[in-house]
Every structure is written in structure tokens, then in C-alpha cells.
Amino acid sequence: MSTNLCNGLLFKTILVTFVVFNSIQYSTSQIQQSQDSFNKSTDLLVYTVATEENDGFKRFMNSATKFNYNVKVLGLGEKWNGGDVARGVGGGQKVRLLREALEQHKYSGNLVIMFLDSYDLVLTLDSAKLLERFDKFQVNVLFSAEEFCWPSVELAASYPEVGPNEKRFLNSGGFIGHAPQLYTIVNRFPLRDDDDDQLFYTNVFLADREKLNIALDTHSLIFQNLNGALDDVSVNFETDSTYLYNHLTNTVPAVVHGNGPIKAAFNSLTSYITNQWTINKGCVHCNIDTRSLKNVNPSEYPKIFVGIYIEKVMPFVEDFLERFHNLTYPKDKIDVYIHYFDQFHVKVVEKFISDHGDEYKSVEVQSSEMPEYEARKYGFEQCMKMNCEYFFSLDAEAHIEKLDLIEMLIERNRSLVSPMLGRPFKMWTNFWGAVNSDGYYKRSDDYASLVLRERKGLWNVPYVTNVYLLQARHLPSVVNFEWPEGVDLDVAICEEFRNKYIFMYVDNFDHYGHLVNNDDFETDHLNNDLYAIFSNPYTWEKKYIDPEYYIFLHNKTFKEFLTPCPDVFWFPIVTHRFCDDLISEMENFGQWSGGKNEDHRLQGGYENVPTVDIHTNQINWERHWLHFLKTYVAPLNQRAFEGYYTESRAIMNFVVRYRPDEQDRLRPHSDSSTFTVNIALNTPGVDYQGGGVRMVRYDCAVTQLKKGWMLMFPGRLTHQHEGLQVTGGTRYIMVSFVDP
């Protein structure tokens, strides 16, 4: 806090104290009323101030409605002149509005008034029980209490002492009292709208607490202020109820206030308390205030603006774009904006636009000439210009697998909702359950439960990234967000959402897709995705492993395995895309052996049965292939040859090329392996004519090979074989001699 601000607060403190002690006169009836015995309170009226109906206000009103409170809202639609209370002093406008409202109640002795902040506060107890608690205090006015003396620490010594585990200092975010006494308090002296309301009430309390019978709720029996007290409380779960419990004072507060700089933590708590989520019912609030598209004709669906951001060199971008294209939302309702940072992705983006651009309402592409910060803002601006109803932000890391995701997110009907995506088999996701004081990651108590989907629902979190749906009505308030120096852009955007009370919900009801990891991504190959098997095993498998592979591995019996020749097993294993990428990678490398016996690539320099081939180690793909053998081939081998457990060792791993003008066949031979893997990389009768393999001992030929299918058979002892003549075109196979 600056010296000028401190001096200003001290001056204001002295001035207000002078006014309180020298200018206030009390009527005998007012003082007497504070000393009379108290009758049971029967009427309760709640006042709050809200100049806009943001998500915080709606949350407060929902809790008030749930627990049957009569709430009067002051200042709605009025310009806020009370200062920037999130960063400093202010709030005097609230006092002025309450003063005006209490004018009609200044003689209502039986009326109890409760004033509450609304944007960062919820009620957790019904009004009748709250009044019972208030009556037990036997005071005219009760203010909430907190850990800190703010905004004028100089006044701390003037406060009465309190016992252990009690809160000593007044907080103006919540107070309750009889109408006449509250009217007297708010009229003590004039103040400006941008004066500090907490300092105003503090001075009245310190000067007149005995005369007006004012007390603080030091035990948090009614009011729980959370700033400085997060360690005092916990969320307690019973079968049908979830509530906040103060274990220091053994109380269950009726009003919970996320005052000060802990609003992100408070937001997270409100995903649970007031029975928003219970053990028995799960997410209760998820089914409230939803939107249905069930009976809406797709031609009447809301207009969506999609901002696609490829801001890093990423693997599997082609698959990312294809997954976006596969979403079922009507494409004539979607305007697409694509921004890519690196020229590495130009061809993929251009191909996507060429293949699918005409299907969308409009498509615009921008490159690295526009920085990411400007591109994010531009997307917001374009959405507003096109009068869209929703802005769908999608980063290249986020691979969507739920085809009707956009429809589902719309039906959630939240200001901002993000489907939970994570790196497969990791705890890394696109949301944070908590943030530290700098706005960066802090692990929340429930993070693991949410990521593992042990608790399912819509969760109010402080940070989401990579994919979210934002109601476009919020764009005018965030389109000009600031990006402070030294702060990550995604962190700055989420801070802006929090500051504007735009709640960010993460949805973990189902599996919606996954995140791709660009760590250690190799970019010096033709088909770089082939090399991402270690960093992105799930995405790699989705792209390159045949969907039928697991059917054969887990669901087929041994008798159902295909055996075109004795002990020759035939399995689907890789996709056509794998085959095409491996062929093109080899052809791009281009250094095919000459098919001679002399081979400098081998340790002895001699190949007994030579082929025209390229070894996997020549294209730096050896360890990737060996991992493939261990992960995908070994499980099939253990089922086919029960009792044998392969070590998945292989020295010879190579792609062979057969064609009439080069090497068209291979003479009978026995492989130096325990078993051999032979994968067909293209299709007979289409890519080449002739070809196939013949097992000499059994005089059994397999000629109608299937692209992406693997022949697996014993090696040196029993299965001598030959490569049959290719009469036209080019045949490619992937061969591995396993456990030599």
C-alpha cells in the first residue's frame, strides 16, 4: 500500500472518529431500546447491492431462493462509482444505497435487516434458523468478523480483545440488525460513493458499540469470512448434504463470504456447499438452469464462432482438425477462424481448408504475422461482429472424441464451460483446481478425485485452457483484456474471466477427448507423427493401430484365430495410414540397399539372403519399432504360442521393396529368428500384381494379403519360406526377426 494511501486512510480514520465522538447525539429512546430485553425476531429482510447480474450475483440469489430469503436488490443497472474494491478501498456506494433503502424502515422495530455482499457470498441455512441464531446474541446489530484489520491497521489496537480461535476485526460484507439501529448507523456521517464502507462501519463500531449494542460474530456462528480462515474450515460430506464446517469454533456458518483475494478458492467451495454436490445425488446444480436442443430444428441452432489456435509445433494436427470436422454440430452454423504460429503447419491447414472449407458458414486463416495475443482478441472481436451466440475456443492440443460435444456444452447453459481433457494415463489436464497468489497452478484437495472422475459434475474452477465454450454475451466485458508483462497469456485470460465474475466450469461427466503432448516432438522427418509413440502413446495408437487389433487380442478364442497355413497366424495390427506413412518415410529417405550379399550395414558385412530394403535404424526409428513389438506384437504372440514369452528383441527390422525391375522375388530361406513378423504395407491386385509368401514345408501360399495385417510364424526351424514373384507394381512389407 502506498504512503499516500496509508496517510489518506489515517486522516479519514481521525476525521471519522472525531465526527463520531463530537457530532453524534443519541436519543434516550434509542439507547433505552438497546438495553431492553429482546423479543423473538419474526421478520427478516435481506438487502444486497449489485449493479450487474453477473454469475456471482446469480449464485447468491439462487442460494437465497433455496433457503427462502426475502431479498431486495439495490443499485441494479446503476453505474458503479464505489471504486475498485478488488484492488483497494471503496464501497461507499453500498452504504449510500442502504441508507436510502432504510429510510422507509427507520421506525420498524420488529423488522430485522440483513445486509450482504452478493458477488462473493452464499447463504447456507434457512431464514428461520438464521433468525434464531441472531436472537441468541441479544444484540441490536451483529457484524461479521475476520482475521485482518482492514483497511486501516492503525485501528487494530482499539478493538476489544477476543478469545482463542475467535476473529477480532469487523468485516462489512455481512451484518444483521434491527432496522432502527441500522438506520442510525448508516446515517452517522456523510460519505462519498468511493469512500471505504468497511472503514465507515469500523469507526461506528469502535465508537458506539456499547451505546448501540453492536457486536461481532467472532465465532462465525452466522457469518464465515474466508480470507485468512481457509485452514479453519473444511467441506463435510453426509449422504444427502454437503456443508462448510469450522472446526476451530465447531460451527456450521449460515453465511459464507469469499472476501478478499481468495475468491478462486471460494468459487471452488461453492461447487459443494449448499448441497450443490452430495454423495447420494451427485451434482445437484448441474440439472438446474439448463438449455435443451432436443426439440430444436438444427436450422435454428445458435450461431457458433470457432477460434482454432495452433500456437505450438504440435504432433497430430491433421488428426486434430479431422476430429473437429467430425463434430456433429451443423457446419452452416459455424464460422471458423484458424490461427497458426509456425509455418510447419501450413500444408496441413491448407489441406483442411481445401477439403472442408466450403462446408462451413465462413472460414478465415491467419498466420504468425499476427501474434497469439492479438489473435485471441481478434477471435473475440469477430464473434461479436458476426453476432454469434457462442464462442468456441479450441487449441491444437485438444483432440475432441465426443462428436456432439458442442451441443452438450450449449445444453449445460453456463457462462463458460470446458470439457475435461487430460493427457492419457497422466494427471495433467486442461484445468486447475486452485491457483496461488500469482494465478498459477496450485493443487486442490479434490483435483485427483475430479481427474479420476470419482466425483462427476460441473466444477467452478479458477483456470481452464485448450477448449471451452463461452456465451458471447460476455465478450464485450473481456474483449480488451490486458496481458501483463511476465504473465502467461492463458493465465491472464482466466484472471480476466475471474475478475469479471464469469465462472469457469469444467465438465468431467464423461470422456470427451484427450490432450496431445508436444514435448520432445521430432520435426525433422517426413511423417513426424510416426515418431511420437513415446510422448503420445494413446494418440499414436488411435492413428496407427487397427481398431480390430484388440478384438483379436481380447475377444477372439484361439480357435477363431486365422491360420492360412499351419502355425502361421494372421492378425490385423496397423492402420492403412501407418502403412502409407511408413512407406513414404522410407521412400523419402531413399537409400535402398542394392539387394547384394555385401551389406556394410551388418556387423559381418555379409547378407546370406539379401533383399532391397531399408533398416529402421537408418531412419532413426529403431527404438520406436522395438517398443511397438513389445507393446503390440508380444501380447498376440503370447496368445498364439501359449507358454512362450518373447523378450521382443530384434536386430533385423526393415522394410522390403519388391518390383519387377529391381528384385521381384526371394528364394526359399529360413529366418534367423524364433518367430518372424511380416506386415503387408500395401494391397495386392491394387498396388501390385503377383507376390505373396509360400511356406515350403507345407507347400502353403498366402497371396491375398491384407494391408495392415501381420503374418506371424516360427522362424529358423520349421517355416522355411519364399517370397513369390511380383509381376507388376511395387510391393512393400515390414519384416522383423524377433528373438534371434
UniProtKB/TrEMBL annotation:
<keyword id="KW-0560">Oxidoreductase</keyword>
<keyword id="KW-0732">Signal</keyword>
<keyword id="KW-0325">Glycoprotein</keyword>
<dbReference type="GO" id="GO:0005783">
    <property type="term" value="C:endoplasmic reticulum"/>
</dbReference>
<dbReference type="GO" id="GO:0005506">
    <property type="term" value="F:iron ion binding"/>
</dbReference>
<feature type="signal peptide">
    <location>
        <begin position="1"/>
        <end position="29"/>
    </location>
</feature>
<protein>
    <recommendedName>
        <fullName>Fe2OG dioxygenase domain-containing protein</fullName>
    </recommendedName>
</protein>
<dbReference type="Pfam" id="PF03171">
    <property type="entry name" value="2OG-FeII_Oxy"/>
</dbReference>
<keyword id="KW-0479">Metal-binding</keyword>
<feature type="domain" description="Fe2OG dioxygenase">
    <location>
        <begin position="649"/>
        <end position="740"/>
    </location>
</feature>
<dbReference type="InterPro" id="IPR005123">
    <property type="entry name" value="Oxoglu/Fe-dep_dioxygenase_dom"/>
</dbReference>
<dbReference type="GO" id="GO:0005794">
    <property type="term" value="C:Golgi apparatus"/>
</dbReference>
<dbReference type="GO" id="GO:0008475">
    <property type="term" value="F:procollagen-lysine 5-dioxygenase activity"/>
</dbReference>
<dbReference type="Pfam" id="PF25342">
    <property type="entry name" value="GT_PLOD"/>
</dbReference>
<dbReference type="GO" id="GO:0030199">
    <property type="term" value="P:collagen fibril organization"/>
</dbReference>
<dbReference type="InterPro" id="IPR050757">
    <property type="entry name" value="Collagen_mod_GT25"/>
</dbReference>
<keyword id="KW-0223">Dioxygenase</keyword>
<dbReference type="InterPro" id="IPR044861">
    <property type="entry name" value="IPNS-like_FE2OG_OXY"/>
</dbReference>
<dbReference type="GO" id="GO:0031418">
    <property type="term" value="F:L-ascorbic acid binding"/>
</dbReference>
<dbReference type="GO" id="GO:0005615">
    <property type="term" value="C:extracellular space"/>
</dbReference>
<dbReference type="InterPro" id="IPR006620">
    <property type="entry name" value="Pro_4_hyd_alph"/>
</dbReference>
<keyword id="KW-0408">Iron</keyword>
<dbReference type="InterPro" id="IPR057589">
    <property type="entry name" value="GT_PLOD"/>
</dbReference>
